[in-house]
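Case study 2.
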Amino acid sequence: MDLQKMTTNKWLQLAIVLTAPMLYVIDIFIINISIPTIKANLNASDGEMQLVVSAYLLGSASFLIIGARTGDYLGKKRVFFWGMFWFTFTSCLCGLCINARQLIIARFLQGVSSAFMVTQCISYIQELFPNAAERAKAIGWYGITLSIAAIIGQILGGYLAETHLSIAGWRLIFLINLPIGIFSMLMIKKYLIETERVNNIRFDYLGALMLAVSLGGIIYVLSIGREQSWPGWSFFLLIFSFLLLMMFLVVQMKLTKGNRTPILDLKLFLNKEFNYGLMAVLFHFMLHAAYLLIIAVFLQSGQGVSAISCGMYFLPHALLFMISSIVASKLLTRWGKRVLQTGLLIILISFLLQLCLFNEKDNPVCTMFLIGIYGLGNGMVLPFLLNIVLNNIALENAAMASGIFSTFQQIASALGISIISGIFYYKLQHPEVAAAYVPALRLTFYVDVVCLMVVILMLWRLPGKLGARE
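Prediction:
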């Protein structure tokens, strides 16, 4: 490793590796705002559009840990470059799809490629910044990048969805990754250092495949089976998927006992505080992913807000999220989980106010304010759930626990899109009637409040202070 190059160019290299999480997050938010437009252009069903969102998250979740280990085995620069290449390529595939089924498959492959790309970012931060103070600053830039990416995705999604050129605007949502990806690959080749390889690594490809197929089957049934009034095949597929998921857990248990390298190290699940933390992660990301999608659909299809205006409605949400997360990071060491509990209370207030005030008539100031309040509360919760999960884990298990956290986060988001958004669409019997969106939205708010209560309960069971891990 060229230490001189690493020292002189480390902040430039940080900027390069941050393109991965930036693109990944942009492609989450950019599609949420564009769902109604894509649905109309591809003549897709609501269930198919749920799958377009959740397939991306599922592909990422299934291969996150393998992606991280591949970087250790082959070298982080090589894996980062090819992860960026395939992410760019699959983004173009998404932009060229002619029907919803093709887009679902392309989005899954895009999610898989993101797992190999994004996992190298945090690893590079550890490599480039051995000094604790500089590393903390670099991680801070990582958090800021995620917030900025959310803002870009929301605004860009609305703008491009309404762009009318020789190419349909919704296709540009994916094709815009092409110039960014090419530029990033050139910078990777020229400036990024290669890392040392670790040869004694084994890969649980079978586990990743079993996880993807089992969860994919469950999510497919929840999204499409509902639309088709639960035909016989949906029950058979659901039973098969649950059995495969149980088989996956058995295989993971055997690998854990044999000191192999499973996707999920089940030894960590013997720690009850770790389980409480994961339950909080599961229910919080379920409600969060579903909320962002449902509100975007409600505003555009229920209130007649344009796509570009819808993106602007989320601007206060992103800005307040960024501000509150910065403030909360300074309070976390002293106040521990109370910071997160305060954020959850703010989210609850936001939900109750939206439940009472949202109707078929568009009130931009009120809507932006209440969505912004949600962002304010969420900025005190979402970035720090990992701290809570890792707080009761021994230092030598922190890397595996972080991998499990990230996997659960993506799975929870995909399940939230399938389950909570499915409830929304099930209640929405007449999507052509604007007034029909209000009771559907209110029902999902009740579900969100229940999820929020579970998160509050899980945090209540955890230790209050954030102590040093041993």
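Residues 226 and 426 are 7 Å apart (CA to CA).
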